[in-house]
Amino acid sequence: MSVIVVGAGPTGLMLAGDLAEAGVEVTVLEKRAEESNLTRAFALHARTLELFDMRGIADEIVGQGYQVPRVRATMGGREAVLDMHHPESRFKYVLTVQQARTEVLLQRRAERLGVRIQRGAEVTGLDQDEDGVTLTVRTGEGERTERATHVVGTDGAHSVVRAQLGVGFSGHSYDTHIILADVRLDQDLPRAVNPFMGSDGVALLPPYGDGWFRATVWDQTRQAVPLDHPVTPDELNESLGRITGGQLSVAETRWSTRFLSERRQADHYRVGRALLAGDAAHVHSPMGAMGMNTGIQDAANLAWKLVAVERGWAPPWLLDTYEDERHPVGRATLRLTDLILRMAVAPAPIRAIRPHVVPRLLRNRKVSDRVRRLMSGLGVRYDRPVQVADTVSVGQRVDDLPLVSDGERTRLYELADPTRFTLLDATEAGYPAEAAEPWADRVRALHVRAELSEGADVLLVRPDGYAAWSGERPSADQVRTALNEWTGSP
Ligand SMILES: Cc1cc2nc3c(=O)[nH]c(=O)nc-3n(C[C@H](O)[C@H](O)[C@H](O)COP(=O)(O)OP(=O)(O)OC[C@H]3O[C@@H](n4cnc5c(N)ncnc54)[C@H](O)[C@@H]3O)c2cc1C
Question: What PANTHER family does the record point to (predicted)?
Answer without folding.
Answer: BINDING MONOOXYGENASE, PUTATIVE (JCVI)-RELATED, TRK SYSTEM POTASSIUM UPTAKE PROTEIN
